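Today's session is about reading a structure prediction critically. Students often jump straight to the picture, but the first step is always the sequence itself: look for stretches that repeat, for charged clusters, for runs of hydrophobic residues. Only then move on to the predicted structure, which in these notes is written as discrete structure tokens rather than atom positions. Here is the chain we will use throughout the hour.
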Amino acid sequence: MSQEAPREQQLLISVLGDDPRSMASELCRLSLEARCSVSSSRLSRHAQAGAMVLQVSGSWDALVRLENNLAPLGKRMGWQVSVLRTPVNAPRSDGLPYVVYANAAYRPDVLNELCHFFALHNIELEAMTCDTYQAPHSSSLLMTATLTVNLPQGIQISWLREQFLDFADSLNLDAIIEPWRPTHG
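Below is the predicted structure for this chain, in token form.
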């Protein structure tokens, strides 16, 4: 009689709070101590606060150990912690990864309009960043957004690019959409 290896499961952990440096260190340490593996993570700083998202995998008992230790850690550090169980091999649609870069004078509606454009065309967002900054030679507030999207199989790329550029022109955005390329350091 063969013994089956324990099935891997996953947690998606989201943490908001002060001191992003401690956030990364504490969450990685806690995961390791619970015998879980961090499969992906994102950390971003927002003024003095930070936001971290980790995808952690492990056996069901390792994940329970980790979950049980997250709440006390969050309380001790003053962090907001959310946990979501996710399937290990959730089916993902096949598609072509593309990156969208958009720059404009800041307006509160721009990011919403970008997201709405891709939702209308049934295009999945994989990642998104948006930052505002003061123009170097004026007092204008500018924004830059980068979206990674997953184009569905069979979409006419030249048609989508034309639709996107018309859309960007209508909002006075300096924007492009191009194939995603891996970066090598």
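Discussion point for the tutorial: The helical segments are 20-33, 60-77, 110-120, 157-170.
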